[in-house]
């Protein structure tokens, strides 16, 4: 009975065992991003971690990591992110998606060794920079790889697993941190960080057993291998093209692309619109509060003295994961734009509540709990919308020859925005600097208002469209708000005979 239900589900109709294995392995690699993202943030609230890397304050008789080091640990890592993004993008474009994933897995094991063996905070900073080079390689490789191998009707779900896996990684490592945080030795933070070795070892061992991207193989003129890859990844069905038909459509689309794959092409013709949309998506995902909740959420909640920060981190990770899985499941049914706009509205509500309650000089217990709840719900709203959908939309927009370069440029904007807000947030939160505390909600909430406007006017609806159909619509100059209603049949690729006669009467 269960196999029958799975087969009749819209996901089960398209997933073959090899495709499921490929998507699963690519998603698995993102667990390590979640391990680092949440593991380091949660470790910074541990007494053992503060004692090892912090400074003793005789007046309070406590250890604490200075604000400037907190800022550096959560911002300079994006230097590694940018370098890794470029390296991963180059390896992915020249040597294939699988080779990039293999190389980044080996790198991750090296950077994990630096982090776990650190005894000085300078070593932690170096380890974070090195580990974020792995995260950059991952971002350059995994979402495009998933977008290129998956059928259009389930592409949103598959690419969205990048963010879902990141959040599951957060649940796992926050659970471990909850169990170890009471340890007085450095094992309290070294045990969770030991997880950094597990995923790269699995990915490096198994990556060669999944098919390479057929679109990348076509770009290398390896037609027979591209067909073989499609045959392994596709399930035959009356409503689906055969691998041979899909291959022919991919070849026609590549032949008709109006660019040669240079950086200048990103800002020419229809590509300019695509590039600017991708840049906007990657700006708003960070500018609406993601660094605040992800990097500083645990420390912020700890400063409220209201709830166990480690229990909060675990609770928030669970809520975020549920919100993300719901979003990626709905993305192929409801669409991208409605979820983005709803997420922006929710963000505005929670962030303004956070800022409004923060204006109270001496908040009550109930008001403090509202601040905690608004922080968690703000994070959940991002995970329900912009966090997973950013990767989906950014990988759907570009032309095939520009997918790697578009991902590279848009992600650089993501990194720069993340750096700016990650570096400045501790100074906005803490005294003797901005001392805004929860009033930062007014800043991020105002930007969230702009994200709604951007989603409504600028983001096209691409659910259910093949990457080739999306490419044709942009090249035809279709307004972005008409994408959802534009007839699919008009975008079907011509056969060779009709293509040769299309200039005739």
TrEMBL record:
Cited InterPro entries: MFS_dom, MFS_sugar_transport-like, MFS_Sugar_Transporters, MFS_trans_sf, Sugar/inositol_transpt, Sugar_transporter_CS
Gene3D superfamilies recorded: MFS general substrate transporter like domains (1.20.1250.20)
Membrane topology type: Multi-pass membrane protein
Protein localization: Membrane
Major localization listed first in the record, in broad terms: membrane
One GO CC term on file: membrane
Any single Pfam family the record assigns to this protein: Sugar_tr
Transmembrane domains' residue ranges: 68-87, 99-118, 276-300, 312-330, 339-358, 370-389, 409-429, 441-459
Keywords: Membrane, Transmembrane, Transmembrane helix, Transport
Limits of the Major facilitator superfamily (MFS) profile domain: 22-463
GO molecular function terms attached to this record: carbohydrate:proton symporter activity
PANTHER family (UniProt xref): MAJOR FACILITATOR SUPERFAMILY (MFS) PROFILE DOMAIN-CONTAINING PROTEIN, PLASTIDIC GLUCOSE TRANSPORTER 4
Family, per entry: Belongs to the major facilitator superfamily. Sugar transporter (TC 2.A.1.1) family.
NCBIfam families on file: SP
Name listed for the protein in its UniProt record: Major facilitator superfamily (MFS) profile domain-containing protein
